[in-house]
Amino acid sequence: MRTVFLVLHSLGRAGRSAAVIEQCRMFLALGLKPVIVTFTYEPRFTSGLAARKGDFALPAGVEVRNIFHDLQQAATQDQDADWSREQDLDREGLLVSTIRIEGGERSEYFDRAGRLVKRREVKDGRTASLALFEHARPVVRREYEDSGACGRERTLDPATGATIEERYFTPDGICYVTRYLEPASGRQLGAYVHHATSGQSVRYSHNTPWHAAWLDQVLAAESPRPLVIAQHPTAMTKLLDTDPAHSSRLFLSHVNIYQEPYGPGAPLRTDYAQPFRRVEEMPVVLSLTEAQARDMRTTFGPDRCDPLVIPNVVRDRRTDTSIATVSGRVGIVCRLSATQKRVDHLLCAWPRVVAAVPRAHLEIGGHGGARQDLEELSATLGIRDSVTFLGWLDDSVDLMASCVLTVSTGRSEGFGLSIGESLAAGTPVVSYDIDYGPSDLIRDGVDGALVPDGDHEALARGIIRLLRRERRAARAGRSAAERMAREFSPEVLAARWSTAFALADTRS
Q1: Rounded to whole angstroms, what are the CA distances from 36 to 20, 59, 188, 291, 330?
Q2: Sequence-ordered alpha helix ranges (H) in 180-320
Q3: Which PANTHER family does the annotation name (predicted)?
């Protein structure tokens, strides 16, 4: 069975990760072995994967490879050890103060002179974190893994509290990676990978060459030669630095790669500027929409970059197909970020909506740093009684399915997966007409409404129009669901992926 690696920075719980999981399902159906590759340190790696559920549960047959987990497993001799436990629990000669906290307790340990020596938090019956102190300042912080053992120890700058060194451990106390950081900026000053059996340590100037070297070893070990899809800007750079002979390579951006005003002529986003300086080294570039592919040809020249267009899979992900529509209910599901998702625009339009349709109620699913500000804005606007903040939803599409319509107010997108999910569940969408995605998914006046970007009044009018004609909205939703199944199903898009893989084999 041939392996296809899907290379990310981390596997989260947002649109890109949902799209990658859908790709995995499709690749399994094509007879491939999907392996997701990540590079972030995850102390709860094993339990975190097992706990994924709803839209973000991993399909059976999908493997996840993480650089820290792989290196740790290779260096571990005693999986049941707990190298720091004795020191963590030691209280000889110390005075202890313990208080209850959510999910556990916090203990502070003082010497006989009353100086704080360490602080330990216990959750679910085991150590969750520990800090060691000198002169009343934390100088070391420990993080604990599924095994209960310390997996990472960070040395802190006593003056600022910034991390200056990170050391990563096996359960039996073998340090397999050391990283040094500049306190003021957090800039990496070097990473050392330790091989205890050979007695060698290899230095890398920063994460990219280290991660690329590990990824290259993973790819070289595969037979037959694997397929690899880099789906994050840092993943693109790392894949470009591997040996081209070790894989057939594809590069996919899930976002709009331009800064404001988000199209040709604007600078590339900072994170995408570096990999796309080397676009001519990318055998196959993929775009989620024809509009972005066209703009990339304009920016880089079609001889250097001629993307294939493969949209995200859009399918009906309701957990129950009998979910009833609630009259007057409008929904939005997104990360609560004022700068990117602009939920504040919807709140500013909402007084006009409830004035025209008093039964209207707005349900907001998702979490993020802007939630408190958005709740305060809803109070300021006098709409608190007609707005509910639901927080994180494991099955967000069920909310969409219960709405008369949903709304999208993003500043820029690569595709707009939540729009497609709403349409696939039979719920029309009112969206700002931005690059990229809304106009690819919504037929204005048929599947919902496209309104001018940033126009609060037009947004309100589009919502009011559908709320006043709920039967028409329901018909629009049914039509949209049929179109999503017809044009964005795994069966339809699998043929495009097969073409892209064949091209990658030819060009790589």
Answers
A1: 8, 12, 26, 28, 35
A2: 207-220, 233-240, 270-276, 290-300
A3: GLYCOSYL TRANSFERASE GROUP 1, GLYCOSYLTRANSFERASE
**In the prediction, which pLDDT does 466 show?**
97
List, in order, residues 6 or more apart from 87 with CB less than 8 Å away. none
| Contact (CB, 8 A) for 259 and 269 | yes
Alpha-carbon distance of 51 to 48, in angstroms, equals: 5
Give the DSSP per-residue string, 361-422: EEEEE---TTHHHHHHHHHHTT-GGGEEEEE--TTHHHHHHTSSEEEE--S--SS-HHHHHH
94 CB contacts (<8 Å, ≥6 apart)?
Answer: 109, 110, 111, 117
Bridge partners, 169 (sequence order)? 175
Q: In 3D, which of 365, 440, 415, 374 has the Cα closest to residue 395? A: 365
Handedness of CA 331, 337, 341, 344 (dihedral sign): positive
Average pLDDT over residues 206-215: 97
| Residue with tokens 């939703």, as numbered in its chain | 477
Q: Per-residue b/e over 251-284, b at no fewer than 16 CB within 10 Å?
A: bbbbbbbbeeebbeeeebbeebeebbeebeebbb
Flag whether pLDDT at 55 surpasses 80: no
Q: Torsions phi, psi of 207, nearest 5?
A: -65, -40
Nearest-angstrom CA–CA distance, 265 and 246? 36
Domains of the chain: 3-74+209-309 (3.40.50.2000), 85-173 (2.20.110), 329-487 (3.40.50.2000)
Name the one residue in this structure whose structure tokens are 């699913």.
Answer: 365
